Amino acid sequence: MEIADKFSNITSLRWLVTGGCGFIGTSLIACLLRKNPETSIRVLDNFSVGTSGDLSEVLSLIEKEKGVKPEGVEVIEGDIRDYDTCHKCCSGIDVIVHLAANTGVASSIEKPRYDMEANVVGIFNMLEAARQNNIIKFISASSAAAVGEVEPPIHEEKVPRPVSPYGASKLAGEAYCSAYFRTFGIRTVSLRFGNVYGPLSKHKNSVVAKFLKQAFSGETLEIYGDGNQTRDFIYIDDLIQAIALSVKADVGGEAFQIATYKETTVNEIAGKIIELMEKEAGKKVKLIHSEPRIGDVKKNYSDISKAQRMLGFSPAFDLNKGLKNTFEYFKLKNLCK
Q: In a 3-state reduction of DSSP, which class is residue 144?
């Protein structure tokens, strides 16, 4: 059987999702189970961010929607820094989606050694476990931070110049993915995610989730610096689309920018959230500016032409629609407290 044929029906595969209790992991699992509630999914998570309860919420929602209890989801508590755990979790698996990581610039500056161990040693352990278990498809979550401070739009031919330890660790992960494809034949794909947002992001501390949590809690929104720094914000459903396309595609050793090809300032995001809060929730929200953060990239948005060409990737959600969906999720969570 050709590789492309084997992976054409992704819900028939046996999945390992590291960090599967987090925002992207639970969103991916929900998508797979909506397509087929019997999909076999193993989750490896140390519960440092997401919890087993977060995943249980998703499984309960799927059961309610489909009328069938998902029986194929297995949760293993463990850490990707431990090779034996990684090796055991890879047994009998077809595809790995490696999401577990230390995320964010600030935490990598505070604890650079931990960031390296989680993001470099962690991905090495998973790749080596994949090799030992003869797994041929490996999708890794990378970041535009791996490229660092370059003139945007960012594309895959830009010479990387990481600014933060986080960016450096993600670039190292991409390098190992490239090496494990070219040396051992594992079809690795590194996806450089833009600033992802959407429902199920209650534990995230990136811009959109942080601002919404602050707004619903009656806190003042805090912008680091003048707010003119730009990012490329991608809605979670579009990100999941990119993961699915990467699993299906007969490619290996490649990195892809996964974003929207649109530049948005942090000031614009804050303004849209303040407007939503006033219009939809009747709440006035205050905004302050504080000192810039060390390691923050000033301008960041992505040219997604390569992903469009090689994966067939095409974002479907604009910022207004995505923010409205995300706002409704946080509003519901706030009402349910």
A: helix
Report the candidate in 334, 219, 336 with the shortest Cα–Cα distance to residue 286.
219
pLDDT, tens digit only, all 337 positions of the chain = 345 555 678 999 999 999 999 999 999 999 999 999 999 999 999 999 999 999 999 999 999 999 999 999 999 999 999 999 999 999 999 999 999 999 988 899 999 999 999 999 999 999 999 999 999 999 999 999 999 888 999 999 999 999 999 999 999 999 999 999 999 999 999 999 999 999 999 999 889 999 999 999 999 999 999 999 999 999 999 999 999 999 999 999 999 999 999 999 999 999 999 999 999 999 999 999 999 988 777 888 999 999 999 999 999 999 999 999 999 999 998 866 5
Among residues 83, 166, 176, 197, which one is catalytic? 166
CA–CA dist 18, 31 (Å, integer):
16
Q: In this structure, what CATH number is given to the domain that contains residue 72?
A: 3.40.50.720
Q: Is the pTM of this model over 0.85?
A: yes
Is there a catalytic annotation at residue 83? no
Query: What range does the domain containing 179 cover?
Result: 3-197+234-261+302-316
In a domain, 127, yes or no: yes
